[in-house]
Amino acid sequence: MRKSLNFVCVASSVLVVVVIGWVFSARSAATQEGLQGPIHVEGGMISGTPAWGWGVRLYRGIPYAAPPVGDLRWKPPQQVAPWQGVLAANHFSARCMQREGGAEQAPSGVGTIGALWDEPGTSAMSEDCLYLNIWTPANSPDEKRAVIVYFHGGGGTSGEGSEAIFDGSMMAKKGVVWVTANYRLGIFGNLALPELTAEDEHHSSGNYAELDKLAALRWVKNNIASFGGDPNNITLMGHSSASRSVNNMTASPLARGLFERVIAHSHTSFGRMINLSESETEGLKFQQRVGAKNLAEMRAKSAKELQDVASKSGRELVYGDAKIDGYFLRNDVNTIFNQGKQNDVYLLTGATNDEHGIGENLNEWDFYLKLPNDPPRTPEEYTAWAKKAFGDQADRLLRAYPAHSEAEVAKEVHDIGRDAILQGQRVWAQFQSKDGKGKAYLYNFSHKPPVPSTPGAQLPVIGAIHGAEFFYVLDNLHVKDLPWTDMDLKVADIASSYWTNFAKTGDPNAPGLAHWPAYNAKDDQLMNIEDAPHSESIQNKAGLDFLSWWDQHFRENGGSGHAQR
Fold it and tell me: Most buried of the four, 16, 321, 331, 403, by CB within 10 Å?
């Protein structure tokens, strides 16, 4: 009771004040117990810490599955063993096994991203890495806030959920519960072998990374209410290779009911996918490189030995992709969508305007484009490349992307790189708008972030490159020391509002924001997120249509589709 209380009040008034004060104190204590005190989750009790900024609480390093070590290496994720006492969730876990240096040392082609995303969450690395992190704005467990579960990209071979760029403080301040999670990478998350398939109850192997993500989603579904989240309002979000994974999840019967909406940045799985037999063949080749005779010897190898072989193999990206195994995926994603058997969700998807930068080596990104080590620079080189890459279909490409000068060649190579990604997101929006109950929203992010001025930065970073939108859609300009402008701050506020609105309601629109129309094939519109965001018709539909056709041609004729990061 406040000291300033007038004790000359009549006794009955004093009693009323005391009772009211007791009620509010009890409510405050309950709130503290529910959010600031220990929280009960699967496995035991945990405690968190205040996050950056007012009103956000952070829980780092929560185990969502048992450590996949020893006999659990290359097995589906298992339930967490209970612990005693209160687990202090105040440190990020180790990142999953990957080549030393993580994304910065990933296979060539992601250097420009490294110049922006060079703030790792942790330097530790371990097979014991199946942990997630939660940022919540809730003041009580019963608030039922919208939830976003984000999976990082990195080609399925690198990355971590605790990278600074993925800090969820600002998203939480905009009213959503933000969750990031690690999952097994590379050879640890994707190895298929006949012996592994034989020992598995579902006669499957090689999709451990996808099963990890499913386990994280189930954990969130079962536990997020304790953090003030709504288990019936979950948005699944992924970038690049994880956007492909999000696409896989919408095609998997195992994921049905685990989320209501998806946000997919810069990739899909509509290209050709490998099957279990092909993946087992790759796995046996890896086993030979390791020098192991059988699965027991493979499991006896140290994690470092296996990672070193994978990193030196030149086949690392092969170990970073999902496969058709008859369990997680019963067919390729394109066929599942064409048959209308996908999970019906609300969709927000798109790409950046300069996916590969300008003057980037696109061969590292899109295997099916067959670009030389250096992009074509003259009209003659451009025509020669088109004929080599597209054979008797080269004229179709050259009509859609004509170039008669070196400047035009540079522009068209840039546009092809962008459209090779955007066409997949557009196809997904077309599927959803045609077959689904949930609406689809398509974007092109074209606002250009500032160029790093740090000595030794990996340049050039030109334009809205692959991944550059995350500073804005997560409103995270503060995590990177760049010469941000007032316009950057404005775009970040707008973009993050669109994203959080979508997570809350399935519609990115709200008063004060430029209207973002739902996608339909007739109007074929997207939202151009630039200094003044606005909706517009798709540019160069002929080019996108051709690249969509080419992707399907590769899928039907045994091509490899395009690579992912």
Answer: 321
